[in-house]
Amino acid sequence: MLNIIENKPLSNLTTFQIGGAAKYFVEVKNEEEIREAILWAREHGEKFFVMGGGSNLLIPDEGFNGLVIHIVSSAFSFVERTLEADAGCNLLSLICAAAGEGLGGCEKLSGIPGSLGGAVRGNAGAFGSEIKDFVTWVQVLDTNTLEIHEFSNTECAFEYRTSHFKKHPELLILRVRVALGEPQKHLIDETIAEREKRHIQNVRAAGSYFMNPVASAAVVAKFESEKGMQSRGGRVPAGWLIEKAGMKGARVGGALSSTMHPNYLVNESGSAKASEVRELAEKIKKAVKDQFEVVLQEEAVVL
Ligand SMILES: Cc1cc2nc3c(=O)[nH]c(=O)nc-3n(C[C@H](O)[C@H](O)[C@H](O)COP(=O)(O)OP(=O)(O)OC[C@H]3O[C@@H](n4cnc5c(N)ncnc54)[C@H](O)[C@@H]3O)c2cc1C
After folding, report:
1. Fewest CB atoms within 10 Å of the CB: 53, 85, 229, 286?
2. Which atom of ligand 1 is nearest to the CA of 165?
3. Comparing C-alpha atoms, which of 112, 119, 122 is closest to residue 194?
4. Which ligand 1 atom is nearest residue 299's CA?
5. Are 214 and 121 in contact, with CB atoms under 8 Å apart?
6. Closest C-alpha to 265, from 211, 200, 207
7. pLDDT tier at 94 (50, 70, 90 boundaries)?
């Protein structure tokens, strides 16, 4: 039996800690409840939105005028060197559980907040490692037809911060299989410590707000000579562009482009409005476009 809650504040469910309430809200623990929630939305003529860990979301100040389906499924199991886990599982908890089983390989993803489903949708990654390097199978529910589909790694069409599922938001990720190898337990703590040192951990933000864009050869060359490092796939860090465009530390109300990591738009005051974050984002986009002819695209999901 679903527990549909009316007028549920959402800000505390997101790392940004911004935004209004959902008209309706439900937590779902398994496939059956997910199906029920979708049918409920259909019967009541409400649109719905799927939420995982809320770490890549900007909820509008006016909230969401429909049903928020919060995926909190948490079952997982190991068969030999494969982990099969519900999409709602917390990514770091899974990495730690794998280490406990003497399995690993994906420790550099430690500290990326949010759920496994959210990570697969956006091909989350850090320090040269991406979830695509480990995923072997994804099971999804097509929320239009309520049919189940299965995807191999290749069919997931993973690329930098995207996947088939990001391009097909009607596909709700239910379960994921991950191939594991030898654990490097020490890397879990080391990675998290490195993230803390770089001020990219435990911040009221949604992580990198913009994706690293593909830039012209001239911009790439400028980046490479200044930083003494190779750009990856013709992309330059959005944070570097933001800084060069003079927007590091720029502020609108309570929203700030972090001085430590300019591509993090942070809810510095704790009371920033979504409208302020969006306005800051637009100013940054304009400054970067004016200076570099590069159009920044949001990585964060702006509802
Ligand atoms: C401090 C901080 C640091 C971060 N560092 C990194 C980093 O190093 N690398 C990186 O890649 N990201 C990083 N992020 C961003 C974020 O953690 C990732 O994008 C994460 O994978 C999002 O997962 P989530 O469960 O929180 O998704 P949510 O924020 O809940 O949702 C994001 C999108 O995914 C969709 N979604 C969620 N679950 C499902 C599902 N089961 N099926 C289909 N769609 C779904 C939602 O509908 C939404 O469109 C960081 C964020 C923060 C706050």
Report:
1. 229
2. 43
3. 112
4. 19
5. no
6. 207
7. very high
Domains of the chain and CATH, by start: 5-71 (3.30.43.10), 76-186 (3.30.465.10), 203-302 (3.90.78.10)
**Looking at the predicted structure, is the pLDDT value of residue 9 above 90?**
yes
**173 CA → ligand 1 middle, Å:** 13
Average pLDDT, the chain: 97
Q: pLDDT: is 169 or 1 the higher one? A: 169
Question: Tokens representing 139?
Answer: 């099971």
CA dihedral 240, 167, 8, 26 (to 10 degrees): -140
Catalytic positions are 161, 208, 299
Q: How far is the CA of 207 from the centre of ligand 1 (A)?
A: 9
Q: Which atom of ligand 1 is nearest to the CA of 201?
A: 1
Closest CA to 110 of 123, 122, 127: 127
Predicted model pTM: 0.97
